[in-house]
Every structure is written in structure tokens, then in C-alpha cells.
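seq:
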Amino acid sequence: QVQLVESGGGLVQAGGSLRLSCAASVRFFRLSIMSWYRQAPGKQRELVAIITGGGTTNVADSVKGRFTISRDNAKNSVYLQMNSLKPEDTGVYYCSLRYISDDYWGQGTQVTVSS
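struct:
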């Protein structure tokens, strides 16, 4: 059974930083595409950043230059470094794993940025 456990969320002032972590309990982690999504209150879930097993990354235009996604295949973990946070970055952040055609989700971690 696949489990994804996020951590690192919290309350931060605008301009601050947070680092989210997601640990996956799977044997095929290094073959998986990992992503971070977020969902703000009253809005649809949106893709924030994605990283392939080989380390190719892409981030949403709204966070480009501020957020960085990375992974450590030896630790079955993916990270999201968030700098220069803005109030509009507030939401629940979800870690997602895709292996072949199956998607798995973590429970989410709350990020709140105060102005």
C-alpha cells in the first residue's frame, strides 16, 4: 500500500520561507513522477511543481523563481522549498506520486502566509 506523508507546513509571514517534505513508502519511488499541488479555500487544486525520476523539474508560472522542487531517491522523499512567500500562496499543499497510470496522494499540509 502506498503512503505519502507530508510535513513542514505552518504559519509564516509574507516574505518568509518554508520547506515541505514528503516521504513515500514505495519500492518504485525512483521510477515515479512526484508533484506538489495546492488548494486554496474555494479554489480548485492546482499543480505547483513536478519532478521526474531523473530529476527534470517544472514549476508553475505563479511560483517560478520562488519555489524549488527536489527529490532524494535514497530517502524516498520529495521536497518543496518555498521562498518569498506571499499571502496568495496560502492553501493546503499535497504531495502526489504517479507510477505508470496510477496516482497517489498524501493527506496534505496547511501553509498559511500572513500579510
